[in-house]
Amino acid sequence: MRVSADSVPEPPRPGMFSNAVVRGDRFWVSGMHAGGPDGPVGGDDVHLQAREAFRRVVALVEACGATTSDVTALRIYLTDVADKVAVGRARAEFFTGEMPCSTLVGVSALVEPGLAVEVEAEGVTGTTSRSVQPS
Fold it and tell me: CDD domains, from UniProt (predicted)?
């Protein structure tokens, strides 16, 4: 099932891709960034761009019927890996406690000029209620 959130811009061309998808108890959120009609939200400030990207991810996670605690994996794409500290500060504003698995990838460019960070997420709804023995 395709999922959307009122506070997250829809893909520029309908039918090209979904912002989020739910299949059973699993969900996936496409790469979210801070792109806007007048350029990136936050301008050149990578921390502010990351905050907006994470805000959009969380809005879609919640639209999938999940919480940030249900997110099992994040993938973060940066045009400059040196910005990982600023992005980490932004992530800490939205994700606390047991953190999801995370991959950080350096890329040469993102989809729109001026974008510095993009974040994807996936998870399983209801994972916080499951009891797992640590290994």
Answer: YjgF_YER057c_UK114_family
Q: Using CB atoms within 10 A of its CB, is residue 115 exposed (0-12), middle (13-18) or buried (19+)?
A: buried
Coil vs helix vs strand at 77: strand
Per-residue pLDDT of the chain (135 residues; tens, 9 = 90+): 988 899 998 877 777 889 999 999 999 999 999 999 999 999 999 999 999 999 999 999 999 999 999 999 999 999 999 999 999 999 999 999 889 999 999 999 999 999 999 999 999 998 664 444 444
> Within 13 Å and on the Cβ side, how many CA atoms surround 93?
16
Q: How far is it, in rounded angstroms, from Cα 90 to Cα 45?
A: 12
pTM for this one? 0.91
Strand 20-23 and strand 101-106: pairing?
A: unpaired
Enter the tokens of residue 59: 């809005």
3-state secondary structure 26-50: EEEEEEECCCCECECCCCCCHHHHH
Selection from 49, 36, 70, 69 nearest residue 119 by Cα: 49
